[in-house]
Each structure stands twice: as structure tokens, then as C-alpha cells.
Amino acid sequence: MERLVNDMVVFEKPHALTDVPLHYCPGCTHGIVHRLVAEAIDDLGIEGKTVGVAPVGCAVMAYDYFRCDMIEAAHGRAPAVATGVKRADPENLIVFTYQGDGDLASIGTAETVHAAARNENITVIFINNAIYGMTGGQMAPTSLPGQVTQTSPYGRDVKQCGYPVKICEMLSMLDGPEYLERVAVNNVKNVLKAKKAIRKAFQNQVDGKGFSLIEVISACPTNWGMTPSQALKWIDDNMIPYYPLGVYKDRSAGLIPGAKEDK
After folding, report:
1. What is the spatial distance between Cα 182 and Cα 32, in angstroms, rounded to a whole number?
2. Can you tell me whether residue 80 is helix, strand or coil?
3. In principle, which of 29, 76, 89, 155 could form an S-S bond with 146, CB 3.0–4.6 Å?
4. Is the pTM value of this prediction over 0.90?
């Protein structure tokens, strides 16, 4: 559980993670993001008052992996459930959702948009792997143009199926959200940036600033039909060019897209 170098601890499993083995496929990056969320909870000392909301999807059993209280939500409804929990005890609870793209960007789009528009003081962790993972690899709202999936065997045809939904770009046009950032976890450099972003999203809630969403570009080797190493490279070559990483809105840093200067 920990590695010692000259009797110094250089790494240990976050306390906010349980010892239950993860059920995810080899090469899936959900485990990395779980660790980053748990590290943020540990760093801020909020485990005892944190409530996570897990919806339908590959992370449906996230309640097995986090030591904090967890609630199961219907498909796409995690932001609505999180809103209710947070409003029930806004001074004491820290509430986060953990959602995939088939959940958040499809059946849950309305809940996501309106929670952001209201600037609900919750934290949303959004896993974008451009496919429906749990149900067998169907085309998702985030699947890339031309991407081959079980329901687009000849590649996503934008004339028939439309273009992918870019959540950070879309939400950045709303007045409500406090903080929106897109990160990736396909290499060490990106993992470190993702850790910083996720921690900030939780810190914003602790500080009462409002709605924070971190979109994490992730790998799904099984449903992409790739090896884990191929999937990580595919993120660099295909996902990130279409979904550029970076901060899309940060009110505390003065980054508000479309804002006009006072004359």
C-alpha cells in the first residue's frame, strides 16, 4: 500500500478510497480519476462530510470504492440528486457527482445545464471516453466524427447523427458556472494537471463559490477495440485535438468567455 525510500513514505493509497478491487477493464482510466478524487478529499479533510452521487454507467458501483457516503441516482439525474442533497444541508455537506458522457451529455443534459445555470454549489466529475462503455460500446453524444462504434460501424456520420456535444464549451456560455476545465489522464503530466483541477473544483465548493465541472478525457480500450497503450495514444492523436484541454471558465481568475469590458 505504500513505498518506502530511505524510510520516507513517497506514496500511499488515499484514505478516502476503500480496499475493494476495482471492476474496471484493463487500461480503463476510471481508477486514476477515482484516486484523484480521493486525494482531493483527503487533502481538504472533508471525507466525513462528503456525499458522492453515482449514476448509471461504468461507475455505477463507485459506492464500493469511496469511503464517504454515496447515493445512487437514476440515469442522468445525478446533478438533480446532488442539488437536493446540497440544499438540504448547504453549510455542512460537500457533494460531488461522478458521471460518464453517456449519462451527463445525453439523458442527463438538462439536469447538467440547469444545475450549471443556477450555479449550484456542487462539484461534477465528468468522464468523457467518447462511447457508451457499460452497455457495449454504442455511439455516445461525445463520439468523434467518423468514430467506429457498435451503432456506427461505418463511423459516426455527422449528417445523420449530428456533431459531438462539447460540454465545457457549451456550459461556458452560461452566466452561472464558477469553474469549468477539461483535463486528461493519459500521461503523467496530464494526470498532475487533472489532480490540480479536481482539487480546485472541491475547494471552490468548500469556499461556497458555486458550480464546478471537471471534464476528464479518458480511455476505453475494450470498446475502442485497442490495447491500453494504443488507447492512450489515441487520446493524444484524436480526442485532445477535438476536445482541447484547458480552463473554459474560472470566475475567480477573471476568465469569463464572452464578457464585455465596462466602458
Report:
1. 15
2. helix
3. 155
4. yes
